[in-house]
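Before relying on records like the one below, remember that each one covers exactly one chain. Contacts with other chains, cofactors or solvent are not represented anywhere in the record.
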Amino acid sequence: MLAVACNLGRRAYTGCMRVSFRLLLPPLVCALAAFGQDSGALPRDPALRAAMEAARKSEPQTLELQARLCGIPAPPFHEEERGRELKRLFEQAGLRDVRVDSAGNVIGVRPGRSPRPNVVLAAHLDTVFPPETALEVVRKGGALACPGIGDDARGLAAMLAVARALNQARVETRGTITFVADTGEEGLGDLRGMKALFNETFKGQIDSFVSIDGAGYGITNVGVGSLRYRVTFKGPGGHSYGAFGMANPTHALGRAIAKIDAFKVPAQPKTTFNVGRVGGGTSVNSIAGEAWMEVDLRSAGQAALESLNRKFHAALQAAVAEENRRWNNRSPVSASAELVGKRPAGRTPSDSGIVRTAIALSLALKVEAALGDGSTDANLPMSLGIPAITIGGGGSGSGVHSAQETFDAAQSWLGVQRALLLVAALAN
């Protein structure tokens, strides 16, 4: 039943949630065995059961930590303050070889009986919010409200809860679990933390990867690739009346946006485009000397993303040519596109060991999860062929990336328990 549900995808898997817990044990055992795990050891291991109970009992402490971490500003490219606190917390949790790498990733190691397999459990330090954002956590019953409370203060707190529970219960694993609080997941951070982790810090030394990102119980096994550009249109500029008749960078920008808006893109793999920001000009009565826009191109398929990228560059060239022809090439404009972000697309198959194990554990814990796509830290290892997924940290949330972001902590310890069992299985 499990294999069929995985292959049929979201709809079939969600339907499986109505099956009784007793009937879910065989697929759990099968999934663990398929990944090389002793099919009897994980569910019955007393130390793991003790770790699960420790995670449940310590959830109030985890929520307090989540709120406190949320109150430490970590805007893009300025994660240092929050990173220092994570370094202290890693040391306090008993992790070994705690350090900060060249990209600002905070790393702590929980050694197993051997260095490999090396399983990375990660959560990102940064938020989308600028430094001036008010970060006061408001409690409403069982809910916490604050910008970034779910994404990714929850991930950081859940990751630390896993480390504490494993150590408190003295769980032993065959392989190593490496904990990483990483930089640059959001926006123009461009996965710089992940790129350093996989290409420098632990190049060739990571066997599987799990990221905890936000609330809920979703399992992201498809990495949406993206290309982000800042496009600048330039010309000599001049007085809107006295210099009328010369090519206008702002008008060229407008022509480009119109062409982008007319793109036809496939529904599968889902492929999208967006002009997110525009700017430029001097005054209402001036022909701009410069105008710019920031553009986001995305697709769950690498080939579709490359096709969209070619259309985008062709649209820029056509827009400039049309604007210059319109004014008989008088004081012509030009355009340059700077690539400011590149995230590779990737996919971890739904029938892979890591995905099947995550699904089986979700079923066993009676949490309703579904496979999905997204742009997360897992994109990078997926693109390298390393088994990788991103999972939610439990509870539920709303208003992500907004000032109204909220985290509901109802039974949120289940997210910690699932992450704990998953990395323990992968490390064995």
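The chain has two domains: 2-223+345-426, 225-343.
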